[in-house]
Amino acid sequence: MTDYGPEDAAVDLAEREAELRRKLARLTAPVEEGSTIGFGKRIGDGTIQAIQQMEDAGSAQVIADTLDEVLRAQARLADGTWGRCEVCGIAIDPDRLEFRPWSTTCIDHADAPR
Ligand SMILES: [Zn+2]
């Protein structure tokens, strides 16, 4: 039985938040003026770059969504509702919380629409 409490979650969530913000900043950083990267003269270069940008945009969205969940979990920690299912209100399995401290539902409601 794992004893995973709000104090553990606060630490994990803070670390996770910092990590996600770093990744997001890197992905959304504007291309520097005068950068020699990109705008390759060969067609292949531009294609690869375009694909890379699409992938970055996709993962940036995923990261932003996860960051949103982390921030909501921190708000729930603050108001004392962390660790309880948003749907039915029962205590969420500590193993689940340790794996995903930003979980907002019990396992039964994991697939419920938000
Ligand atoms: Zn539930």
The CATH architecture comes to Up-down Bundle
Q: What is the terminal separation in angstroms?
A: 29 Å
Instruction: List bound small molecules.
Output: zinc ion
What's the name of the CATH homologous superfamily? DksA, coiled-coil domain
Number of helices: 3
Compressed to H and E, one letter per element, the order equals HHH
The SS-based structural class is mainly alpha
Helix amount: 55-70%
Unreliable residue stretches: none
Radius of gyration, whole Å: 19 Å
Note down, in words, how this protein is organized.
The structure is a single chain. The protein has 114 residues and is mainly α. The chain has a single domain, classed as Four Helix Bundle (Hemerythrin (Met), subunit A) (Up-down Bundle). It is 58% helix and 0% strand. It is built from 3 helices and no strands. It is elongated. The chain starts with 5 loop residues before the first helix and ends in a 15-residue tail after the last helix. Residues 85, 87-88, 90, 105-106, 108-109 line the site of zinc ion.
